[in-house]
Amino acid sequence: MDDESTIMSGESDEEYEMAVPKRKTSKSKRNMRRAHDGVTPVNAQSCTNCGEPVRSHHACVHCGTYKDRQI
């Protein structure tokens, strides 16, 4: 009876092992994989009202203008 209940519930005596790499990843392969992970610099432009650096399509934090209008 116990054998049927374990089969029905999906439990078994088998143990599952995690996947483990067969070989160490070389520095070259690791660096080639990371080649596209670089962070691009922020494209800052100067505010037309006060001249402070402002991110594109964002309101100016210093004076509160966006597209020459006060927000």
Which secondary structure elements does this structure contain, and how are they paired or packed?
Layout: H1 2-9, H2 27-33, E1 44-46, E2 53-55, E3 65-66, E4 69-70
Antiparallel strand pairs: 1-2, 3-4
What does this structure look like?
The mean pLDDT is 85. It contains 2 helices and 4 strands. 21% of the residues lie in helices and 14% in strands. By secondary structure, it is α+β, with helices and mostly antiparallel strands. The protein is elongated and about 70 Å long. The chain has a domain at 42-71. A two-stranded antiparallel sheet has the order 1-2. A hairpin with a 2-residue loop joins strand 3 and strand 4 (69-70).
- As a percent range, the share of strand residues is 5-15%
Neighbour order of strands in the largest sheet: 1-2
Low-confidence stretches: none
Number of strands: 4
Global geometry: elongated
SSE class: alpha+beta
Q: What is the H/E string?
A: HHEEEE
Main sheet: strands, sense, barrel: 2 strands, antiparallel
Report how far apart the termini are: 74 Å
Helix content: 10-25%
- Look at the structure and give the mean pLDDT: 85
> Treating each run of at least 4 consecutive H or I residues as one helix, how many helices?
2
Radius of gyration: 29 Å
